[in-house]
Every structure is written in structure tokens, then in C-alpha cells.
Design goal:
Blueprint lengths: L5 H9 L3 H19 L5 H10 L5 H16 L4 H32 L3 H8 L7
Helix pairs in contact: 2-3, 3-5, 4-5, 5-6
Length: 126
């Protein structure tokens, strides 16, 4: 079996499209959780998969593009409507993710803050 350094793995991960990077992150976090708690339940594994599922690349890229256009002050009326629609989708995704995080924290009997630390998740507002 080939062995790779952490730096080599990170460099390879940098080349991945966003969706693949999200999937890799989910798998690595699941692996970490299994090693930390060898008896990871099916429920916890499912919650971790849902927590780490990212937004589709196309949606995420368009959302960022529209935000950049808005910041530049050149957002058209139709782009504004599209941005509002995408913002609703992003907020729905974030709400679902928070629901899964809260459930996992409840199962593990730890605070949400402790769970975020354990999973290496930074709050979006930092």
C-alpha cells in the first residue's frame, strides 16, 4: 500500500472540485469519529454524512458571484431576485445542518459548542 505525507494529501485535496472536497471532508471526519468512538452508530454516521454534505458547486459558485456583483454595486433587478432565492436555499441548507448538529450533540450528550470543536467546525460568524 502506498503511503503519502499529510502535505501530499492536502495538495491533492486542493485540486478537487468543491463537491468532491466536501465528500472527502465528510469521509475523513467520519473516519476520525470512528477512531474516536469505534462503535459509531448508524444514526451518528448518517448525521455526520448530512452535516458534511455541502451545497452543490454550481449553486455555491453562483451565490458567491452574485454577492460579489452586489458588493460592486452593479446588481440588476433580476440578479437581486436570483440572489434572494439562492440566499433562501443557503439558509435552508444551513438550518438543516444545524438541526443535524444539534441532534448529534444531543445523542453524544455534549454541548453544540463542544461538538463543533470535536468536529473541527468553525462557526460562520467568526
Amino acid at each position: 500500500m502506498a503511503t503519502y505525507t499529510v502535505d501530499e494529501l492536502v495538495k491533492a485535496a486542493e485540486q478537487l472540485p468543491q463537491t468532491d472536497l466536501e465528500n472527502l471532508t465528510a469521509q475523513v471526519l467520519t473516519l476520525k469519529a470512528r477512531r474516536t468512538a469505534p462503535e459509531l452508530s448508524q444514526n451518528e454516521a448518517g448525521l455526520l454524512r448530512n452535516i458534511n454534505r455541502g451545497m452543490p458547486d454550481e449553486l455555491q459558485n453562483r451565490y458567491r458571484e452574485l454577492i460579489a456583483i452586489r458588493r460592486a454595486g452593479t446588481l440588476t433587478e433580476s440578479e437581486h431576485a436570483e440572489l434572494l432565492h439562492l440566499t433562501n436555499q443557503v439558509e435552508k441548507h444551513d438550518t438543516e445542518r444545524l438541526k443535524y448538529l444539534t441532534e448529534l450533540a444531543r445523542i453524544r450528550k455534549i454541548s453544540l459548542t463542544d461538538l463543533l470543536d470535536e468536529l473541527g467546525i468553525e462557526p460562520a460568524y467568526t
